[in-house]
Amino acid sequence: MEVVATVEKFVRASVMVKPDGTETTVEQGIYSIQRIDNGACYIGSSVSIRSRWKNHKMALDAGTHHSKPLQRAWNKYGSGLFKFIVLKKVLDSKQLRRIEKSYIESMKPLYNSELVQNSLMAHSDETKRAMSRALYRRWERRRKQGKMTLTKAHKEAISKSHIGIKPSEKTREKMSKKKQGKATWNKGLKGAQVAWNKGKEWSLEVKKKLSESHRGYVMPEEQKRKIGRSLRKYHMDI
Question: What is the DSSP string of the chain?
């Protein structure tokens, strides 16, 4: 098996030269989760090798990985018998799936489940919807059975992985449209909630710091208009 680098070396040396001669940082490529003793492996692709490895490891440690063969081997032999390696750097993200498919077809990895291999094939919209509904029913059933409960460590790891991530304008617009027409979670609960700082006495030092942090701040006009619209709507609903 050809190996470009371990994930740590790959991330440190992830600078590639484009055809036009300019340099770019590339963390995308084809990777493998490989057993050290016999070479059995799982092959995948990602636009962010580092993030994908973290996600794989969290799922395997939590026992929720989508590849059951890999999960069983991880549980039986332990994480110490596996290594994460990068097989190929890929400059064009559009070629990732094609190259991944070629690696899977040639190497026939033991731990790539049928679901993963089939996902590389082109499906019709109707097939995709059917697969989505089936997957949703499966996860819903597991949730009702109590099998979807995450450990405290897993929750903390997920929380840390989202720190600093800012959704794009397109994503924000989608989120906004999805919430339009839906009642807020706290509608009708006026007076039932108590602010965390109600009755709290601030020291003079804290008050001074708060005052200095707000000094010279000018609220943007757009924010003023949003607050105005919210207040008008609030008083109309009373």
Answer: ----EEHHHHHHT-EEE-TTS-EEE---EEEEEEETTT--EEEEEES-HHHHHHHHHHHHHHT--S-HHHHHHHHHH-GGGEEEEEEEE-S-GGGHHHHHHHHHHHH--TT--HHHHHTTS---HHHHHHHHHHHHHHHHHHHHTTTTPPPHHHHHHHHHHTTT----HHHHHHHHHHHTTPPPTTTT-TTT---TTTTPPPPHHHHHHHHHHHTT----HHHHHHHHHHHHHHHHH-
